[in-house]
Amino acid sequence: MGILVRRAAADAAYRRRFSFREALTTVVDTSARNRDPVERVFVFLREHVGDIVNSTAALRCLRQRFPTAYLCVEVGERAAPVLQNFPGIDEVWIRPTHQGLWGKIRFLRRLRRGRFDLAVILDDSADMVLHAWLGGIPLRFGVSRKRKFRRLYTAFVPHDPSRHETLDHFRDLVALLGADTSDYRPRLYPLREDAAKAEAALQLAGWDGQAPLVGIHPGASRPHRQWFPDRFAQVCDALSEQGISCVLLGGPGDEALAEEILAHCHCQPLVLTGRLTILQLAALMPLLRTLVTADSGPMHIAAAMGTRVVAIYGPSDPTYTGPFGEGHILLRHPEACVGCSAEQCVQERKCMRRISVEEVVEAVTQLVGLSGR
Q: The pTM is what?
């Protein structure tokens, strides 16, 4: 109860200094002031790798918008490596996967000690604006999906399911803050040593450096988004007959899936599953003619690195979760139940079964020809 009373008192003190409209003007209109009053910015980020990749576009805009502010971000443990080497971030807080009640209390205390002026919530979770409010951050901007805690926002972008979940909503959000979004695109920053290690791993796996190289990423964060191992194997075999080398990719935990694909293959794909860091995987992408993938984090990594993808979509909607940029081929045969988020599909994944091996091979062949490398 004590923290709520103190928070209410702090909010009352702040309202005596700034009305709602004045608070918005404080952030957006800096022309009437000698310096930007926002000195410390805290950014709440999401949990998944693909979301963080797409959030880098907004982070770049925020840094340009507040060039002298201290910029601190909070990110989930698994996706934190995406932000390695990212220019302009002063501090990264890692959100534990399971932090419990006391972990949240410690986080709120740390947030209050940080004395941040502005919270930018790159998520549509209502809980994060509550955390920003309890953490004593007076200016709170985010994307609002539900009415829950909506009054805690200084200003928000309403969630629109017909627009891209991260790219469109977050661009609108930073624009609301006065950022220039003319160069709005995700960026990753692998080092030269990441590229050297990725290429060395390829050579060790057996790539001769000459054959066209296609990445195969069969995994996804949710099982109902995965295509079928035997079909991935047939794609590898068909591409091998055209003189194209395939390399199996994935993170820790995807090894069993790679083994299942290999068991169905007649050819011998290269295997780098579980052997690359996120930034080494990013550095590998420019070596690929294309990446065959489900709706997954590596799909967004490839797009951010300028590599076209052949994306196999089942229940999710590419309008909402698709890759950044143009030139990708998105394969999708929606069923009546499309858009479901069930972990166990009751329709035997009909939407995925309707995507044929021939469609995937044709799409890959098209992009390999276009890449011309």
A: 0.88
Is 339 found in the same domain as 207?
Answer: yes
Q: Which residue type occupies 24?
A: L
| Rounded CA separation 59/187 (Å) | 10
Q: Is residue 260 located within the same domain as residue 160? A: no
Helix, strand, coil percentages (3-state) for the chain, rounded to 5, are: 45, 15, 40
Angstrom CA distances, 56 to 11, 45, 75, 170, stand at 31, 10, 12, 10
The H or E element containing residue 93 is: strand 91-95
For 297, the domain range is: 193-371
Handedness of CA 166, 168, 171, 177 (dihedral sign): negative
Burial of 358 (C-beta count, 10 Å sphere; 0-12/13-18/19+): exposed
What is the C-alpha to C-alpha distance for residues 307 and 289, in angstroms, rounded to an integer?
7
| Residuewise pLDDT in 10s, the chain (373 residues) | 343 333 444 444 444 334 444 445 445 544 333 345 899 999 999 989 999 999 999 999 999 999 999 999 999 999 999 999 999 999 999 987 677 888 889 999 999 999 999 999 998 788 899 999 999 999 999 999 877 788 999 999 998 988 999 999 999 999 999 999 999 999 999 999 999 999 999 999 999 988 999 999 999 877 778 999 999 999 999 999 999 999 999 999 999 999 999 999 999 999 999 999 999 999 999 999 999 999 999 999 999 999 999 999 988 889 899 999 999 999 998 765 666 655 566 557 788 899 999 999 999 999 998 665 5
Question: Are 364 and 219 members of one domain?
Answer: yes
Pairing of strands 245-248, 213-217: parallel
Contact 28, 140 (CB under 8 A): no
Residue 184 is assigned to a structural domain of this protein: no
SS3 of residue 42 by DSSP: strand
Regarding whether 165 and 52 lie in a shared domain, the answer is yes
